[in-house]
Specification:
The protein has 2 helices and 4 strands; from the N terminus they run E-E-H-E-E-H. By secondary structure, it is of the alpha+beta class. It has a 4-stranded antiparallel sheet, with helices on one face. Helix 1 crosses helix 2. It is globular, with a radius of gyration of 14 Å. The two termini are 17 Å apart.
Length: 96
């Protein structure tokens, strides 16, 4: 999701904690409230999402966990990948 000053992309490590047909709980390693707030806002504005939120946990001990529940016809992992790509595209055109 993060683009470097030279235009290079960086990975966002994600650990899947739980998954079923319409729910996904993941942990984003090393991400801040800023990036997770953007993601939460985008997810909750998508018509295929029933609920999306993140839980920061203890600031020194826990990585934030993100929970997504979608409508019956939407795969939460596919939607998450799509929206992360959209966000990356939004920021890749920035010039500093």
């Amino acid at each position: 999701m993060n683009a470097g000053l030279d235009g290079a992309s960086f990975t966002m490590p994600v650990k899947v904690l739980a998954r079923d047909a319409n729910e996904l709980r993941v942990r984003f390693i090393g991400e801040s409230h800023t990036s997770l707030q953007i993601l939460r806002e985008r997810l909750n504005s998508d018509k295929g999402v029933d609920y999306a939120n993140y839980f920061p946990g203890h600031p020194d001990l826990d990585e934030p966990e993100f929970f997504i529940r979608t409508t019956k016809s939407v795969d939460p992992a596919d939607l998450l990948k799509k929206l992360l790509g959209d966000i990356q595209g939004d920021y890749s055109s920035l010039n500093i």
